[in-house]
Amino acid sequence: MFRDDAPAPTTIARPQRDPTGMGLRARPSGLGARLRSILGAGTPATEATWDEVEEALIAADVGATTTLEIVDAARERCRRESGGSGEDARRALAAEIRDRLVRVRSGQFELGPAPSVILFVGVNGTGKTTTIAKLAARLKGEGRTLVLAAADTFRAAAVEQLRIWGEQVGVPVVAQRAGADPGAVAFDAVAAAESRGLDAVLVDTAGRLQNKQQLMAELAKIRRVIERRLPGQPRHVLLVLDATTGQNGILQAEAFSREAGVTGIVLTKLDGTAKGGVALAAADRLGVPILFVGVGEEIDALAPFDPEAFVEWLLSE
Amino acid sequence: MFESLSARLQGVAERLRGTARITEADLDASLREIRLALLEADVNFKVVKGFVARVRERAVGGDLLSGLNPGQQIVKIVHDELVAVLGGERHRLNLATKPAVVMLVGLQGSGKTTTAAKLAVRVRREGRKPLLVAADVYRPAAVDQLVQLGDQIGAEVHTRPVGTPALEVARSGLEVARQRGIDVMILDTAGRLHVDDAMMDELVRISGAVMPSETLLVVDAMTGQESVRVAEAFHAKLPVTGLVLTKMDGDARGGAALSIRSATGLPVAFLGTGERTDGLEPFHPDRLAQRILGMGDILSFVERVQENIDTAEAERTAQRMMENRFTLEDFRSQLHQIKNVGPIGELIGMIPGAGQMAGAAQEAVDSGQMKRIEAIIDSMTPEERRRPDLIKASRRRRIALGSGTSTAEVNRLLKQFVEMQKMMKMLSGGKVPRLGGGLGALLGR
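Above: the input entities. Below: the structure tokens describing the complete assembly.
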């Protein structure tokens, strides 16, 4: 069923906040301030300095394992390429993190030839539906034609939520009744996109904890249904990861990659004080790029991931 | 991928087996393992520092127990320290006023709306009348979500037209609660970031207007290092009385609970498990300690089974098993009982060391295998259920046809049933396989 009718406001706007650029430079705090004090320009970097860097990365949710790797590599790099000042150490650390992000092609999202099916996956409450609305607004702004698939048929009112967003953004939403087979919804949406010659299909799915095997199997099935209808699709499988998530994020990335073939990460809720360091660890571990960041609740609060800006935000004010 | 704290500690215990006392070097190595494990469990790094320091103090300062080797002693010290930090008694909600107001606050996506419905179920179970108030006026369809959940559980939901400010929704909710003789008003609020001043001020105004006797901070069990800052920010602005730790049916260790408790002293009131509206469990410090350690949660398992199984029926079945008179009818009634208890994967996951089995069992249920088995048994005559040996080829065909399955499936079920009977013969002979062991035994549990 298509809803092409005029948008009707169904919620009220929150008090506005101010997202700037990627939204990341807005808040001077945490790791940036810490590193500045740890790695002051004049003072030489000592073992104790590196220990503190380690702690700072752990505090940013990068996780013990990845932190140790990064710090070891940065220390080696610092020794090899430059002197031993705090500023040198800081540069080496920044370069090391940036290289890891760039290596997996973070920030490089290409929609690809029409039709492009984008499947959104993740655990409950990370912001899949909101992210779809934001990406839809973004793609529509670029002149793309699209359709949204309300394949979260499980959570109460999830279909309504996507419908409201669809109306606000002005893109059609394919939906069936609550409790319908999510694969069938995805199939309908893909068929609609094909027959109408649309550029993209954004498929919402129910949040699921990655240790629930039957729900993960259901996700694999949704993927297969799309694949069967359109070989080579879904072209993009985006894992929506909450920036406040800790080390469980790595398990999430692993499990969703295994079952649904994740091609990229969207890091949401980066407008708080959480650094989202687990995304760095997950991207590094699985070799998948971080593609977008969510930095607020406004419809335009989704930005392409910028490795430079991310590192800058991590390491400076 | 992550080694659980219990696995690491078990390594420590094994390494120290045979040594008479803990040397400084042993202790350092052990504490390093403990530190890493706690960080991987998302315990805040500052909290980890303090925790490890206290464990060191107790390990050095004696606390020696006879009968335990040094490795076991470290495990015990860590466990005891975890329980001490997590708090002795569990937090009981203060719902004395009528209506009592319970306000739910937290970050986006932490599970406030689902928790609100689960709380309403609990309130009703205690014979009291809940009112859900939908004051999340920002997230699209959040009100619809609460209304649908209210329908599901048969609880009243107070809503106001779109565009009504949250404060007004809360205020009018309280009025309605007073007029209608409501016992407990459960106020769902919009998720918000702790650094969003305008939104935090809104909460302060709502709180001032409805004067909640309980303000529960809803926190996702997967939360990382930020948990402390989030809790401190909400606690500073609002009279927060306790925590609800959600998504505990996932595989996050829930270190956030330890962090928040250490940093703010706030008690954990409930654990949220699963998306079903009955998935809210009272908090037991020792059980969460064991989970952070990675030891499973046998007590919750036993409790859940007790709550949902018809004891008399279970005893009858057990009796029949012992006497080797177990029939397909008994088997069917068992299947029904298992369904009542809840998602089987969740249950098995509570058994120490049985984590991996959980998925397989759940899959059997969800793939519809269980339903097919029931259909097959339902298609038999009572006589056939009592005496499966009667079921020969033509009866098998009829049963397959009647249940919409195949004769192969009927054959498989009958074969499995014979296997089961054999197993029961063995069990009733006293050869019961032991659950648990491992670290549980080590701790004397």
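Note for the figure: Chain B has three domains: 5-86, 100-293, 303-428.
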